[in-house]
Amino acid sequence: MGGPLPDGDPAPSDGALPADLPIDPEAPFSAYLHVPFCRVRCGYCDFNTYTATELRGARQDAYADTLLEEVALSRTVLAEADALRPLDTVFFGGGTPTLLPAGDLGRMLHGVVDAFGIRPGAEVTVEANPDTVTPAVVTELAASGVTRMSIGMQSAVPHVLAALDRTHRPENVRTAVAAAREAGLDVSLDLIYGAPGESLADWERSLGAALELDPDHISAYALIIEDGTKLARQIRRGEVPAPDDDLQADMYELADARLAAAGFSWYEVSNWARTPEQRSAHNRAYWRGADWWGFGPGAHSHIAGLRWWNVKHPAAYAQRLDRRLSPAAARERPDADARDLERILLRSRMAEGLPVDLLRPSVRPRVAGLIADGLVDGAAAVSGALVLTLRGRLLADAVVRALTD
After folding, report:
1. Contact predicate 5/266, CB 8 Å
2. 136 burial class (0-12, 13-18, 19+ CB within 10 angstroms)?
3. What is the torsional sign of CA 9, 15, 17, 18?
4. Along the chain (405 residues), what's the average pLDDT of each consecutive run of 10 residues?
5. What pLDDT, on the 0 to 100 scale, is given for residue 1?
6. Is residue 352 assigned to a domain?
7. How do strand 291-295 and strand 148-154 relate by DSSP bridges?
8. Nearest to 120, CA basis, from 87, 78, 83, 143
9. Which NCBIfam families match (predicted)?
10. Strand, helix or coil at 231?
């Protein structure tokens, strides 16, 4: 069920945007649709998700209709603010979106497209657990307008999957990828490294298995221990070891080398794609500070510098919308310093780099030190962009601190 929501200012019950919000009607606009259901809670997961026994009054079979009520509300809010525009990307995340019938996901997609329109060639992604992907499901999703599937592979090694509480079998990833390919969808694979008991050889095996499936895109994330998770409790009790930072660094370097040799290029610290066209357009919208509306319990939204987040539990979310109220729990307008920190944090992780002229004049002299330390590419900096080296990607947090402290 994830951690607590952040504090913020009260959100209006009708969801109205502030009259002085500097909305750019030409700015890119995306939709995130959160599906908060999972069969089993993974031990490392801190996302806002719920198993069947945790729903307490919420109905999974009614979820699509409930979310479409928020879509209708959002169209009214944006129309009143003269902020309606076509969607550039749509992303179904979770949870496990494919626990819902493909027809429900299709209705939700048609709902946001009917409300806002969608640009030609827009990227529409659905996250999926390999166990929930069948030829019939992906064929129906493709017919609904889905263009891309992000499959939660995580590992190809059974004992690593067990350490992560993942329930799928490695061979199911292959059948899921084949089904997605047959339906004409682009394929991304998600991997996690640094699980308890995972060796460098285990990780190399997972990388090899992923590359054998010939995906268009691979995300590889270091395991992070989140407070309140089962895995955090296991580590605190000494039942399993905490991730080893040095081993995770070796795993990252191995991933970068193997993926580069296979024709992938990194475009964000944890993401690689075969071609620029196969990079995740939706995630790049987040990293560049574009506008998006997040639909569903616990989902976050951003319009022109205003941020808000919905109530967490599916039952509370449904109750708000049943009463024709906005499901927003609170909102905020970050000040200039907070926006500056976020811009540096996100854009410095991208291969295209952070424009040096976006840095405050007081910290620009520090770039020379980062170059000397081998963290930033010198030639790119001379050309006006702060681009991380491989060493810099391993120490990205240190780079951000140097540019913001």
Report:
1. no
2. exposed
3. negative
4. 75 96 94 92 79 81 97 98 97 94 98 98 96 95 98 96 89 96 98 96 98 98 87 86 94 98 98 98 96 97 97 96 97 93 94 95 95 97 96 96 89
5. 57
6. yes
7. unpaired
8. 87
9. hemN_rel
10. helix
141 and 201 together in one domain: yes
C-alpha closest to that of 105 among 145, 76, 72, 70: 145
**342 plus 283 within the same structural domain:** no
CA distance 247 to 8: 38
For 187, the enclosing helix (H) or strand (E) is strand 186-193
Examine the domain organization and report whether 242 and 358 are in the same domain.
no
* CA pair distance 90, 87, nearest whole angstrom: 7
Q: Kindly give the interhelix angle for 102-116 and 63-80, rounded to the nearest 10 degrees.
A: 10
**Do residue 371 and residue 261 come from a single domain?**
no
DSSP state of 2: -
Total length of the chain: 405
Cβ-in-10-Å burial (0-12, 13-18, 19+) of 128 comes to buried
Residue 377 near residue 390 (C-beta atoms within 8 A): no
Give the domain extent around 361.
335-405
Q: Tell whether 13 is covered by a domain.
A: no
Return the closest-CA partner of residue 105 out of 92, 94, 87, 90. Answer: 92
d(C-alpha 270, C-alpha 59), whole Å: 35
- For residue 7, the model assigns a pLDDT of 77
Q: Residue 127 has which token pair?
A: 């996250």
Strands 29-35 and 148-154: unpaired
Q: Are residues 377 and 275 in the same domain?
A: no
Confidence at residue 62, expressed as pLDDT on a 0 to 100 scale? 95
282 Cβ contact partners less than 8 Å away, ≥ 6 residues apart: 30, 32, 89, 90, 91, 123, 125
Give start and end residues of each alpha helix (H) in 36-169: 63-80, 102-116, 135-144, 158-163
| Buried-state track 5-21, b at ≥16 Cβ within 10 A, e below 16 | eeeeeebeeebebeeee
Both 122 and 237 in a single domain? yes
pLDDT of residue 203: 98
Say what the pLDDT of residue 3 is. Answer: 63
- Residues 95, 171, single domain; the answer is yes
Q: Residue 94 corresponds to which tokens in the numbers above?
A: 């979770």
Q: How many angstroms separate the CA atoms of 210 and 208, rounded? A: 5
